[in-house]
Amino acid sequence: MEHLTEYLKVFIAIYVLVNPLEGIPVYLARSGGMPRAERLAIARTTSVAVAVILWVSLAIGKPILELLGISVGAFTLAGGIIIFLIALKMVLGQGGAGDVRAGTDSTSFAIVPLAIPLLAGPGPISSVIVYASKGITQRGASLADDLVLAGIIVVVAVATYAALAAADPARRLLGDTGINVFTRVSGILVAAIAIGLVNEGLVMLYPQLAPAP
Predict the structure, then answer these.
(1) Integer-rounded Cα radius of gyration of the chain
(2) Contacts of 14 (CB under 8 A, 6+ apart)
(3) Residue 173 CA to its chain's centroid (Å)
(4) What is the per-residue pLDDT across 56-79, written as a single tens digit (0 to 9) for each?
(5) Which terminus of the chain, N or C, has less C-beta within 10 A?
């Protein structure tokens, strides 16, 4: 394919922004004590939700933001604040298994906050909107580009499911104590990512806050 390199770059960019590793600590912390089948169901629901969210962003993201007068900066700032609150619960040990119950609650958790805003957050959504606007090959958006981008989103969702499913063996390897330590340390890292999003959103909203070159 003529533009295979460009397509690969887009996949890598979106997948890195989705960053399933970022969601694994939350997934493990909130699904402890559940049967394996239910944990895998959460992983499937999350990956499907990631795909749907990014597809919706591809189709109507930019028009909706423009219609509502919401800037990418404001969206990024809001997402960063939400992710920071999630990270704070991880660090303080308030995101344990007791927070998730069977049935609807676990399904809701798979979608919010795991799928959005943690995985399919401001970064991936903004990235998809940008690629949908300018086209993957940067020669203007076309129907072919949109179809390829939709396919890339499917691959990203499958890779996300694989990463979450692999987290279960990691729990058996590390044990509950290891997972608790990993969750709290990861919470600090997720908090740092959230602060980065807040900073990025503030700079988008107020360019004068950007550091001098």
Answers:
(1) 18
(2) 54, 124, 127, 128, 152, 153, 156
(3) 25
(4) 999 987 788 778 888 778 877 887
(5) C
